[in-house]
Task: structure prediction
Amino acid sequence: MILLVAGAYFLIPLWAALRFAGIKALGSVVTQAGFGDALWLSVRLAVVTTIITIVLMLPTAVYVHLRLPAVRRLLEGITILPIVIPPVVLSVGVLEVAPGFLKSTPYLLALMYVILAMPFAYRAIDAGLRALDLKTVVEASNSLGAGWITTLWRVVLPNLKTALLSATVLTVALVLGEFTMASLFLYQTFPVWIVVFDQTSGQISVAASLDALFVTWLFLMAITVFGTRQSRRTGGGQVNLFSAARQETRGN
Amino acid sequence: MTADITGNTAADAAAADGTRPTGRTQGTSVMLRDLSRSFGATKALDGLSIEMAPGELVALLGPSGCGKTTALRIVAGFETADSGAVLVDGKDISSVPANHRDMGMVFQSYSLFPNMSALDNVGFGLRMRKIGTGQRRKRANELLDMVGLAPQAKQFPHQLSGGQQQRVALARALAIEPRVLLLDEPLSALDAKVRLQLREQIRTLQQRLGTTTLFVTHDQEEALSMADRVGVMSHGKLEQIAAPDELYEHPATAFVAEFVGIMNRIPAEWQGSGMVTCVSCTVPVKGDSVRDPGSDGAVDVLVRPEGLTMEVAANGNGIVTTKTFLGSVTRVGVLLSGDVTVQIDKPSAEAAALAPGTSVSVTLPPEPVLVAPRR
Result:
């Protein structure tokens, strides 16, 4: 019963949107002005944000787990902050400290998205590390003759594949759906484009939202399937996809 | 075929085609010299010194927090001592990092790499030593065979039981032909039956390979049954290190006496000149087990359940309260005056007559006893 209600809650708006836009509009989205640029910008931002996030969060999480377990609680608290701080405040903060050459490029947004993605990425990596019993595994590797780099590369990273996939999925979903900051800084990312385009053609805009939803869903499914196959082989955990719910669709 | 005819062992065969033989002819000597280590205000190790002969299995036994694991981790190179040194074959290795120490370690928690099969886990140390794939596989298979897990070579850790995982971990530690084998409570996470099997397997392998082994445990039965010598630790110090029977029969201190085996503590009176009176018997005191009996001469005598004698007597000094059948002997609980209960072992046939409530006379044979200050 609950499932039915929940299903209706999710499916009826989609069905309504599809009725409003019409099947034809779904295909014609790609030919609209600005579509390619907006999508390409969003994809670039997603890639850059994911790379920065993982390069920053992975070593930090590993280091804290191994050497500063007492700080773990504090770090957990800090990583939650971006959820409670309003986007405007975050934006101003990043503007204050961002290097000058970035300020006039859209990659400034990537810096902000890194902060937004931090709670999700950190949690995913942290869960992976916890499941691994990092300390023992690292010591075992050391005692068998592996140095630090080898240990990270051959032992730690392969076992965090699932966690890193989760972090990537979450970050990408967040970047592809983020509207507030992009619009605040006047960059036409994909969600911004949908809203702007809405003013010229409501139907196309709704169709674009549906397309985005569908493509993102496909993408997340692909990562989940890939991740699960990997983890089934090695006995790791399931890829966590609560990110899917966070994907914003700005259809109206 | 040749191997069958000449009766060559796998080790000889391995030696013939260039790999090193499984068995080590001479072991490594290890010396822990005056190790101290503090964590904040707590002294985990306080001047610990142990000498291990080549091929010897020494168990460090003690309650949790006594510093035994810290000692092992210092030998492994995962902790550094505040002072003191670890000498392997006479060389100070204090400044050598863990990954260059050539020590095989088995951990309490399952430490296998989850992303590798059993075979790759065992081969990991060989890979780090740049041994080619073919030889590595062969040697890893040999070791898995040695711990009885050849059929599981392709399985991943999550497909193995706890006991199997620890056997793979043991094979992995032995694969690098370590100079020293370090075992950090490797059996405590396993259930009783598996623990017994693995205990024997570890001991057999260790003796066959002649690898000097340091074994940390809080389980006295494990320590006593496996080790050549057992070191009992308390508060970062070594209370006594001796062969298991020596430790049981001649404990050097009250702590050792009470930690190893079952020990009765009976109030007694200090008589001076090395004599003590307990349950109306005056007996000599063993060695200098007590130096300062306190002003009132109040001490306790420490005696094992088999060290007390007991006769049925109408007006005895004790009353039988409990009986525990242990097979050939029965452990009888006797309540003495002063609300002291002692455990006395009797052959089961004799104990049959001792129903709870029977009045008995408990005496101490005229042999030197261990004495400790009254608690």
Remarks:
- The mean pLDDT of chain A is 79.
